[in-house]
Backbone:
């Protein structure tokens, strides 16, 4: 069953330029290297430069859990942690009609 993940990063002021290449690389590697990752979008609003929104779509919960064990995921966390003021992660399962 499709599994969606949303993440909102509230960045510390002035860190977006350093944060973006790291999170974009994580997104590219996720789509390229993880068969269970269907989509990984990194979104911003120019009016809110310190907010970054991620939309990720996985085949199922197991694929998301596998994502969290991938080298690119594990390497990104320590590199971006000091740039994040707040992180809100939410997960959703598709409802069949």
Residues:
């Amino acid at each position: 069953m499709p599994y969606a993940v949303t993440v909102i990063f509230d960045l510390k002021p002035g860190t977006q330029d350093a944060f973006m290449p790291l999170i974009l690389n994580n997104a590219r590697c996720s789509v390229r290297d993880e068969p269970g990752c269907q989509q990984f979008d990194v979104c911003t609003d120019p009016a809110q430069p310190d907010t970054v929104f991620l939309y990720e779509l996985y085949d199922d919960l197991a694929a998301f859990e596998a994502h969290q064990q991938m080298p690119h995921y594990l390497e990104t966390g320590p590199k971006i942690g000091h740039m994040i003021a707040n992180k809100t992660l939410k997960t959703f399962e598709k409802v069949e009609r």
